[in-house]
Structure formats: structure tokens, C-alpha cells
Amino acid sequence: MSESSGIAVRGISKTFGSGADRVQALDNVSLDIRENEFFTLLGPSGCGKTTLLRLIAGFEQPSAGDILLDGVSIAHLPPFQRPVNTVFQSYALFPHMTVAQNIAFGLEMQGMARRQVDERVAEMMTLVQLGGLEARRPAQLSGGQQQRVALARALANHPKVLLLDEPLSALDLKLRKEMQIELKRLQLESGITFVFVTHDQEEALTMSDRLAVMSDGHILQIGAPAEIYEHPRHRFVADFIGEINLLDATAAEPNGNRVRYRLGGSQTLLAEAADAPPAGRVSLAIRPERASLEPAGEEGLAGAVESIVYIGADTVYRVALADGAGNFIVRVQNRAGARGAFAIGDAVAVVVPPEAIQVLSD
Amino acid sequence: MGGGNPLWRFVGVRPTALFFFVYLYLPIIVLLVLSFNENRTATIWTTFSTQWYAVVLDNDNIMRAARNSVIVATSATIIATILATLAALGMARARFRGQDAISATIAMPLVVPEIVTAVATLLFFVLIGLKLGLLTVFLAHTVFCIPFAYLPIRARLEGMDPALPEAAADLYANEWQAFRRVILPLLWPGVASGAMLAFIISLDDFVITYFVAGAGATTLPVYIFGMIRIGITPEVNAISALMLLVSILFVSLSYLVGRLRR
Fold first, then answer.
1. Are A299 and A349 in contact (CB under 8 A)?
2. I need a surface site. Which of A325, B43, B68, B187 has the fewest CB within 10 A?
């Protein structure tokens, strides 16, 4: 992979409106998306992820900054001159055209010969498993089928980059899971760079090679799913992705290559000091499945079981920590004999291994 | 009438509705019936006859007025519909300062008293030295037809997924290709609906036409008005019935076309 392949977003800002209605949708965002990568823009609604996608597609013009595709600036090209295609959230299938005409549209606009167009359409119908539905209108298709037509229509052009704007949000859960696998398969088979926008953190984690977590017009963190999940660098990222315990704490004293943090009262926790800020107020982020429950008296955070929820593979305990240090969620796998070890009201110790603690400065 | 309609719970719904429809349509029904009256005096019924229709279709002056009406309505409709389509596309395309004001201005002729428009238009034509004739009628009609053509087209555009033109552009269609291949085919029911409305409004107009029509540019409504001044004759009933038929035809068509592929 050469330096310049893929998408390079350089210092992009985008504002909408003016005066009192001025909205800063993106604020000096930079980002590199590698060739053949499944890249996800993840964030809550209004974070700017769709605006960034629309800037890459060419539906919006940046207020500042540049977008490069394989080293060449595309920021000021109209959408019909960019080698990228989009799968819209509403699918945006042309209602007055058949499925085959929809898929052929982009090829015809590029001036491809009739025979080749027909071949490519047939190929696409097979790829998205819609054989036999060529003559249907979009209104005669189910949501899942419309989704496949939208994909086929975009992929038929063999774009360098496929942009997907929350394409699965209108599907029911079962179909969504199927399409997630399907999308991943299409991406691997086609070797096309996918840029996928979603607010669904689970979807982002399961599908992406890498993802960017966005909030309020900024990119907070970019990384592989495991890296984002296990080593969130911001309170927002930790909170947005998966379930997590966030405890307010202050650094007490260093202890070798570890630091002891004070939570409140006599409660303390020992954390790896490697990338920990040495002093001041911090948040300790701990995934529920990384902690364990032991009988009271063990080395750990003292508390009492407040609630127990059995959810099949795991049991989730909610522990009220002593000295007003807050609540702590512990997720315990239901191995043989593990169930029923604790009851509501039991005094317990929450044991957290030092390497399971992510220290976040606020 | 099924018992399912929740309206029937209210006392007096049926008589009120009945009164309303009678009030609205009784005069028209009387006119229709009398147009088939054999008697020379329009208001005294004798026996059924279609002779007055034959008399109307045989009258050169009436036919000339009808021809003028159709010429004006057709040409005004075409120009007004094109302008209305362009305006609707422009208004749907971008958000800009003063957009609401422009929107209101386009719809203004709907609320300005017609007599005011008529006097103003006449004054203007005299001022710029335009000779009154079919041309002036056509110009005046084009203006007041625009809002009637504009509203259905705009409504159709507003119901369109804004991602559709974007999808066309994304699939390598330039502006013109996107318009011709995607926007226009989806817009045409609105365009047709607006055109038919404009046509009927032009065909029926009296006040403005009466002011700006010169000699030889008499349209059907103006001619009917001239006949009435002499007295209500059975011919007037027959022409009116014919115009009503054309109007109903076009309004129904406009409604049906507007509902196409919603």
C-alpha cells in the first residue's frame, strides 16, 4: 500500500447556516482511511458523521480543508465526477424504474455499451442474490430486497470507495444481522474500501477493520474495535461503547510501576501506571466482565449486592460500593457451580485486576 | 350508509350535510334542467328538448368566442406551467434568505382581489401602449395561472425524497441527465395536474378578461355576460352547461393525475 492510496481527510471543517443559526457540524477533522478497509464512523446523531460522509460523496462542500482520494484532491469535484458511490439511508431507489434499470443507471450514465451493461446487471443480481426480480419496481420489494438493490446499484460501478449511510437502520433485528454478514462478505469479495456510518456501537464493533468515534464535530479516537473497546482514551468513548463502570478518583501514591487511586472514604484501587496521568482528578473505566466478585474481606472494593439479573450466558450483579463510592456493575459468566454464589444484600468485595483499569483524565 | 362512521353520533349531521349540498348545487341543477327546456322563455318548463344545444353550436359568434377561449387557455397554460415548474425547482433546490417572502409572492395572485389585478393590468397595458386584443388576454392569463400551476408541482416536489437527485448525481448523472431521467418523470403528475388547473382557471376567467380583452378578443365567459344583459335565454343555459362539463372533466382529470404513483 503506497502512502497516497485510500482517502485522506485534511483539516475539514463544515458549518451550516449563519449568524445565530450557525451550526459547526465538523471542526478541523483529519482522518486517513486505508485502501480495502472497512472503516466505520460511529457516533450519536448530530455528531457530524453523516456530514463527513456527504462531504466525501460530494453532496456538501467543505468550509475549510481538503479531501484526497489516492493523493488527488476531490473536495471541489461535483458528485458525478467522483469515483465513489453511496448507499443511502432511505435507499433512494428510483421508484419509476425497475430493479434492473436502477442497477444499470450509473453504468448508462458513464456511457457503457448496452451489452456490457446487461452483463454487469446480471452479475450484480447474482452477487446480491436477487435473480428473477429484474422487472420488479422498488415498491414491490421488501425492505431487505430494496437494501440489496441499493447495494447492487452502487457496487455495479466498481467504485474505489463505497459510502454507506446507516444502511441497516430501517431493517428489523434478524435481517440486520444477516445484512451485516452479507456486507462484510461483499466488502471482502469486492476489495472495495467501505466507509460505513452508524450510531450502533455493536454494529461498528462487529463489522469494522477500524472505526472512528465521533462526538460534537470532532473525532475522539480512531482504532481497531478491540483497541477502542479495551483502551478508550476518552470518557465519552468509554461510555458510548459497551457497558462500563466509570468511577471518580484521585491519584494517591505511586507504587512501583502502578498507581493507587483513592475513590472515597477508605476505598482504593491499584492500576497500571503505564499511560496513567500521575495526579489530579481522574475517571477509572472498568468493563463489567473484567471485574470479579469475591466474599467480603478479600482485597478489593467493599460493597453490598444490590440487584442480580440473570441473562443466560452471564449474570449481572449491581454492587453498591461502601463509603458512597458509587455503584459497580460486575458481569460474571455462568460456569458450572458459579450460579447462586451471592444473594441480594450480601457483603462482597469487587476485585479488579490492575491491567483492567483504564485511567481517563477529565 | 354504514353504522361505522363516527360522525353519525352527532345530532343533525345528516340534515345539515343535506342542506349544505342542496344549497351548493341546487342552482346548478336548475340550470342543467332548464338547458333541456323546450320553451323560449328560459324559466318556464314545457317539454324536454336538446334544440338549444344545436342553436349554440350553430351560432358563429359563440363558436368564435369559444375558439378564443381555447387559444388563450392553451397558450397561457403552457407558458404558466413552464414558469411554475422552473420556480418550484428553484425553490426546492436551495434554502436562501427571503425564500418565504418569494413563496408568498408567487401565491399572491390567489388572494389579491381580482378586480384590483384587472384594473392594474389594464392600466399597465395602456401605459406601455400595448393594443388590447388576444395578446393582452394571453399575457394577463399567464400571470394569474402561474400560482395555480405552481402549487401542485411544488407539493409533488416536496413529497419527493431529497436523496433521489443526490442518488442520480452519485451515479454519474450531470444536472440535465438527473432532471430528465429522474426528476421530471417523477414530477410529471404534478406538472400535468397543475397545467389542467391552470387551463380551467383561464377558461373560466371573466373579470380580468373583461377589462383587458379588446375588440375581437371576446372569450366565452365575456360573451355569456353580454348575452345575459339582454335577458336569460335558453342558449345561455346550454353554453353554461357545456362549460360546466368541460370544467368537471378537467378538474377530475387533474385530481386523478395528481394521485398517480403517489
1. yes
2. B43
Measured distance CA(A328)–CA(A334) in Å, rounded: 19
Q: Model confidence at A172, in pLDDT bands (50, 70, 90)?
A: confident
Confirm whether B42 is domain-assigned. Answer: yes
* ipTM of the complex as predicted: 0.83
Together in a domain, B105 and B232 = yes
* Distance of alpha carbon A151 from alpha carbon A87, whole angstroms: 6
Q: Considering only CB atoms, which chain B residues are within 8 Å of A85? A: 170-171
B177-210 per-position pLDDT tens digit? 999 999 999 999 899 989 998 999 999 899 999 9
Say if B4 falls within a structural domain.
Answer: no
How many Å is the maximal CA-CA distance in chain B?
A: 72
- Domain check: are B114 and B203 in the same one? yes
Q: CB B172 to CB A95 under 8 A?
A: no
Chain A residues near residue B170 by CB distance under 8 angstroms: 57-59, 79-80, 84-86, 106, 154
Does B113 reside within a domain? yes
3-class DSSP assignment, residue B108: helix
- Please name the residue that has the C-alpha cell 453523516: A50
Looking at residue B98, its pLDDT comes to: 82
Answer whether residue B216 is part of any domain: yes
**Residues of A contacting chain B (CB within 8 angstroms):** 57-59, 78-81, 84-86, 88-90, 92-96, 105-106, 109-110, 153-154, 157
